[in-house]
Specification:
The protein is of the alpha/beta class and 317 residues long. The protein has 12 helices and 12 strands. Phosphoric acid mono(formamide)ester binds next to α2.
Length: 317
């Protein structure tokens, strides 16, 4: 595997989930695979889970790991070609990327949508430059339009907790005080569309996601209707995708907050969220603290999804 940016990069999804569950049974089985190999994790944005789980995954595989926070201690990077660099940016990304590549064997990149230019965000301007210029296998640790390590961990979690062969999985928009990218819901839809689940998306009008990820999945604008009989409720906020409102907040309606009344509509469904989560905006205290909340095992599976991807990349070196 040379790149990991979307569900297709995993090939057969059932086999990928099986491999992940095997790794989970003995996460040190491949500890010699990464001997004398270096994992570089480059962060343009903050992280708790991705940083720790991916570093742990690399260490489980016997790798050396380096973390670079671009905004804390590295030179400020120019990303545009042709710019006269007489401002505060000291280094161009076109030198920085191949230099980073020269110190490692595999690179993970976190670079969120900036909401300044939809085309740049949806062309994955930063991530794709790493793929093009680093000379190394590159995986997304959440880029502008996708968070495939999260979605893979989500699918592993659904596989572990499902009580039916084909569970009903509902992705619901929920309110948030800040404008958030569509990366998590995009990747979740990308994976659920390939998984053996009944997938429903619910959000207020105006929050339609890119059809490239929705791919004809059912969209139900009535959240209560969508939640009826759900086996898994996956809550997430995102800002508007469609023009002319790209990157904007259209609603903070707390009627969309996942509460115990909402969960009562489900078939004793499980509550999921990628974390970090704003309590009593996205989900109430009682729901996230309930036995039906699986946010902690879901986060723990981030180590397993990362390890499966890095293992495959090591095998392809
Ligand atoms: N879910 C997730 O990616 O968490 P972090 O932003 O803390 O890495």
């Amino acid at each position: 595997m040379r790149t990991y940016t979307n569900v297709k990069d995993l090939g057969n999804l059932d086999e990928a989930v099986k491999e992940a569950l095997e790794i989970k049974k003995n996460r040190f089985a491949y500890k010699n695979l990464g001997e004398n190999k270096t994992l570089l994790m480059v962060f343009f944005n903050s992280s708790l889970r991705t940083r720790l789980s991916t570093q742990k995954a690399g260490m489980n595989l016997g790798m050396n790991t380096i973390v670079l926070d671009i905004n804390q201690g590295a030179w400020k990077l120019e990303t545009e070609r042709g710019v006269i660099m007489d401002g505060d940016k000291t280094e161009h990304i076109l030198e920085a990327i191949p230099v980073m590549g020269s110190y490692c064997d595999i690179i993970g990149v976190r670079a969120f949508a900036q909401f300044e230019n939809k085309e740049d965000d949806y062309n994955e301007k930063i991530l794709n430059q790493f793929i093009k210029y680093s000379g190394r296998p590159v995986f997304s640790m959440e880029a502008a339009t996708g968070h495939p390590l999260q979605a893979f961990a989500d699918l592993i979690t659904i596989e572990e907790y499902k009580k039916k062969d084909r569970p009903k999985v509902v992705l619901t928009w929920a309110p948030h005080p800040k404008a958030l990218p569509q990366a998590v819901p995009n990747s979740f839809a990308d994976f659920m569309n390939e998984a053996n689940v009944e997938f429903v998306i619910t959000h207020p009008k105006g929050y339609e996601l890119d059809e490239k990820f929705v791919r004809g999945a059912k969209v139900e604008y009535d959240q209560n209707k969508a939640l009826e009989g759900a086996d898994f409720v996956y809550a997430k906020n995102w800002a508007a995708y469609t023009d002319p409102n790209y990157g904007q907040i259209l609603s903070k309606d707390r009627a969309w907050t996942v509460s115990s009344e909402k969960m009562a509509l489900t078939d004793n469904g499980f509550f999921m969220h990628c974390l970090p989560v704003r309590r009593n905006m996205i989900v109430t205290d009682d729901v996230i603290e309930s036995p039906q909340s699986i946010v902690i095992p879901e986060a723990a599976n981030r180590e397993i999804s990362a390890q499966t991807v890095i293992k495959r990349m090591l095998e392809s070196l």
